[in-house]
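Our preliminary data section would be incomplete without showing what the modeling component actually yields. Below, a chain of 104 amino acids is followed by its predicted structure, encoded as tokens that our downstream tools consume directly.
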Amino acid sequence: MTTSSSRARPEDTVVSLLLPAIAQDGLAVSRHELSALNATATVRLDFSSLEVASERVIGRAPYDPTRETPEGLRLNGSLALGVARRCCELLGPLFWTASSKIGA
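Predicted structure:
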């Protein structure tokens, strides 16, 4: 899990952690209610003096708001591609046969 904050500055460091999915002091979780993507169970994590054991830290990197990681791109693109694939399945082969003749 990688998090960034709207208060992050270019001189900050992004720390990637693996945390147990349990309620604990210093961590507040609230679920986002999304109209179209509610099944993703997207949550907001608020950290407040959370103590994390060093073995839970899996990476550190300089904060760079202009850099998109391949992992982030993969996650962001997967949902859209899955929705598009499902739409194509629902439309079926008849749609593709008819639409291919439109531009001919």
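The longest helix spans residues 70-102. The chain has two domains: 1-65, 68-104. Preliminary results of this kind motivate Aim 1 of the renewal.
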